[in-house]
Amino acid sequence: MPAxxxxxxxxxxxxxxxxxxxxxxxxxxPHLCLVLGKIFQFFQVSMLGSRVYRVDVLEWCxxxxxxxxxxxxxxxxxxxxxxxxxxxxxxxxSEDEVVELGWGLCRRAA
Length: 110
Description:
The chain is 21% helix and 35% strand. It is α+β, with helices and mostly antiparallel strands. A 6-stranded mixed β-sheet has the order 1-2-3-4-5-6.
């Protein structure tokens, strides 16, 4: 179910959620997300550390974690350093795993 939800309504993220252009804090503004039961998935979220880090999916489910979609256009260089700076558990999904998850959601919804 798509929704507009304020990420700051959950516990704070280790790095602030920001607008990538202005670097201003936007975690207190509603963001488009998918709600899957008690799971909230925010897509293409930028966080400010020593630089702006963009994550594919910032997910809330009793705590924050990051989901990175691996594949074309995604570089795994220095990934462990990036994950350390962001400070959240990170799960990497391949294109095939994303497609399988999508089909599973469709089957459950039918």
